[in-house]
TrEMBL record:
Transmembrane segments: 52-70, 77-97, 109-128, 205-222, 243-268, 274-299, 306-328, 334-357, 369-390, 402-421
Alphabetically ordered keywords of this record: Membrane, Transmembrane, Transmembrane helix
Domain of life: Bacteria
Database matches in InterPro entries: MFS, MFS_trans_sf
Taxonomic source organism: Streptomyces ochraceiscleroticus
The protein, known as: MFS transporter
Coiled coil region boundaries: none
Length: 427
C-alpha cells in the first residue's frame, strides 16, 4: 500500500514554470503519507492556513454575541433571540452567496461578502455600546448572514485539485472535518476568555478581524481557486438532483444530534453541580470526533460510497446510545469518557457525507451544494437545541434527555436507508 501511495500521481491544475517549487519530502512514517501527499501540492498549505484563520470565528460569533448582549442588557432571552434570528438568516442567505461564488469565483465574491458581515458585527457592537433599541440588535446581526462558507470554499478547492483522485480527496475531506471540529472546539473557549478577561465586545471584534483577514488572504491564493462557472441559462435546482434531498435530510438529523447533545450535556452538568465543567465535557466529544476524522483520512475508502456512508450513519446511531448509559451512572466523569467514544462516529459520517455531496453536485455548483449541506446542519442544530432544552426541562437533568440525540441518529439512519431504495430500484 505504501508503494502504491508513493507512486500514484496527484492530479492538480498546471502551475506556471516560474512558480514551481520542489515538493516537500514525503515523511518516512507511513501513517503520515496520505496527508503529506495532499499538502505537497503547491498552494495547499497557504490556502489552508488562511482558511483556518477565517474559519475560527465561526465558533466565536454566537458565544461572543450572547455574552456581550446578556452582559449589557441583562437578558439571555434577548441574546438568544438575536443569535437565533442571525442563524436563520444565514441559513436563507448562505446558499445564495455560495451560488454567486460558483458563478463569479471565490476571489470576487468572498471578500465583499465578508466585509458586509464584518460591518454587521461592528454595527452590533455599536448598538450595544450606545444602548440602542433592541430591534437594532436584530437588524445589525442580520447583516452577518452574508458570511461566506469558508469551510465549503476550502472543500471546493480540494475537490478541484483532486477531481480525478478519490483517495486524495477522501484524505482532504477528512482533514477539513477535523479542522471544523478544532475550530468549533477552540472558538467558544477563545470567545469566552476574551469577553470575560478583557471586555464584553472583545470576542466579537477579534472574530470580525480574523474573518476579514483570513478571507482576504484565502481569496488571494488564486492558483488553487476553482474556475468560475458562468451560467447562460437557468441552472437546475440542486434540490431536484437524484439522491441529494435524502442526503440533506440526513444532514438535518445529524445536526439535531449535535444541537441536542450540547444542550442536554450542559443540563446534565448543571444538575450535578459541575456546570463549569460542561465545556470540558463537550470538548472531549469534539476531540473524539477530531481524532476519528484524522484517522479516517489515513484509511483508503473501501466499498461503494453510498454503502460506506450508510455504514458510518449506522455506527453513529449505535454509538449515540452510549450517552444514555453513561448518564445512568450519575457520574460526569463517566459521561465524559462515553462522549469521547460516542463522538468518534460523527466525523466519519460528516466526511463521507460531504464526499457524497461533492459527487452528486455538478462541478459548477459545488459551493452551493456544500453550503446547502451546512444549511441543513444549522437547521438541525437549531431544532436539536430546542428539543434538547425541552427534554431537559421536562425529563430532568438526570440524562434522560440523551434520548433526543439517540432518536435523531436513528432518524438519520432511517432516512439514509430509505434514500437508497430508489437507487436500488433503478439498478
Amino acid at each position: 500500500m505504501i508503494l502504491f501511495l508513493a507512486s500514484r500521481p496527484v492530479t492538480a491544475p498546471p502551475v506556471p514554470a516560474r512558480s514551481r517549487r520542489r515538493t516537500p519530502a514525503v515523511p518516512r512514517l507511513p501513517f503520515l503519507r496520505p496527508y503529506a501527499r495532499i499538502f505537497a501540492v503547491p498552494g495547499t498549505r497557504a490556502f489552508t492556513a488562511a482558511n483556518l484563520m477565517a474559519r475560527l470565528p465561526m465558533g466565536m460569533f454566537s458565544v461572543s454575541a450572547v455574552l456581550m448582549i446578556a452582559g449589557s442588557r441583562g437578558s439571555y432571552a434577548l441574546a438568544g433571540a438575536v443569535t437565533a434570528v442571525g442563524l436563520a438568516a444565514t441559513a436563507v442567505v448562505g446558499p445564495w452567496t455560495a451560488r454567486l461564488v460558483d458563478r463569479y469565483g471565490q476571489a470576487r465574491v468572498a471578500p465583499p461578502a465578508a466585509l458586509l458581515a464584518v460591518a454587521g458585527s461592528l454595527a452590533l457592537v455599536l448598538c450595544v455600546r450606545l444602548d440602542a433599541p433592541a430591534w437594532t440588535l436584530f437588524a445589525a446581526y442580520l447583516c452577518t448572514a452574508t458570511t461566506p462558507n469558508t469551510g465549503g470554499m476550502s472543500r471546493a478547492r480540494w475537490a478541484h485539485l483532486f477531481r480525478t483522485d478519490p483517495r486524495a480527496l477522501h484524505t482532504a475531506n477528512s482533514f477539513e472535518q477535523a479542522a471544523d471540529e478544532v475550530c468549533f472546539m477552540l472558538g467558544p473557549v477563545l470567545a469566552a476568555f476574551l469577553c470575560t478577561a478583557l471586555f464584553p465586545e472583545a470576542g466579537t471584534l477579534t472574530g470580525a478581524a480574523l474573518l476579514l483577514a483570513g478571507v482576504l488572504l484565502f481569496a488571494g491564493q488564486r492558483r488553487t481557486e476553482p474556475p468560475p462557472a458562468p451560467r447562460t441559462d437557468r441552472a437546475r435546482s440542486l434540490l431536484r438532483r437524484p439522491g441529494l434531498p435524502p442526503l440533506l435530510l440526513t444532514f438535518l438529523c445529524t445536526g439535531a444530534v449535535f444541537g441536542s447533545l450540547e444542550v442536554v450535556t450542559i443540563g446534565f452538568a448543571d444538575g450535578h453541580g459541575v456546570r463549569a465543567a460542561a465545556g470540558g465535557i463537550l470538548a472531549l466529544q469534539a476531540a473524539g470526533s477530531c481524532a476519528a476524522g484524522l484517522l479516517y483520512g489515513l484509511l483508503p475508502p473501501a466499498g461503494r460510497p453510498a454503502a460506506r456512508f450508510t455504514g458510518c450513519v449506522a455506527a453513529m446511531a449505535v454509538l449515540m446510545l452510549l450517552p444514555l448509559l453513561g448518564a445512568a451512572s450519575g457520574s460526569p466523569a463517566v459521561l465524559a469518557g462515553v462522549l469521547l467514544v460516542a463522538g468518534m462516529a460523527t466525523a466519519p459520517t460528516m466526511v463521507t457525507g460531504m464526499g457524497r455531496v461533492q459527487a452528486l453536485t455538478p462541478a459548477g455548483q459545488v459551493n452551493e451544494g456544500l453550503t446547502l449541506a451546512v444549511t441543513a446542519l444549522l437547521a438541525g442544530i437549531a431544532t436539536g437545541s430546542a428539543a434538547g432544552g425541552w427534554a431537559t426541562d421536562h425529563l430532568g437533568p438526570d440524562g434522560s434527555g440523551y434520548a433526543v440525540p439517540a432518536t435523531a441518529a436513528a432518524l438519520a439512519l432511517t432516512v439514509t436507508l430509505l434514500g437508497r431504495l430508489p437507487a436500488r430500484r433503478r439498478g
